[in-house]
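Morning F.,

Quick status update on the modeling queue. The single chain you submitted on Monday has been processed. Sequence for confirmation:
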Amino acid sequence: MVRILDLLEELWSEARAVGFQFVWATQNPTKTAGVPALVKDNMSAFLSLTTGAGEHERSVFGETAQQTGWTPSGLDGVPGRALLRYRKRPPNPLRLWFVPGDVIAALPPADPWRSPAPENGSEGPQEAAPAPVDPDTLTDNQRAVLAAIQGGAGTNAEIAKAADINPGSVTRAVKSLEKLGLVAKTGTAITLGGAA
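Structure tokens below.
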């Protein structure tokens, strides 16, 4: 194990000079068994799910982690909840996608390193059907926009008024809901999409 870490550290020190980006991850964030110090000193972002208090927090977020609010031990093990330190972002928890084991087990078998052959005989990439969306993963604004559309609102202005959300937030929510296949936008008209 130590030899592998030595090789990775050597690769990192040479490859970063030519623009390689690395993601280092560990389940044991301690000063002796986690990410090497040379690597950690040059990292631009730190993400942590729930960890143990004390040394684990200090190992990820620095010696002043607890005094400055970077305490992933306070996330209480909630699946998908994390702290992200990037630039001047404050230590507010964020929500990541959480996919339970039973959902992963239900996925069809696939070779992750190879694209499936197109069914229609074409050589181009195929558009995948949107995955079902868990309503619990939607933001409050996304839920409010959906409710406004279901209530008859059909433009950004109507949705903003019905949902009592500023127009910029409506635009962002509509774009994200479009990507999820929950709404469709044609010109200025916004309607429920096929995945709703």
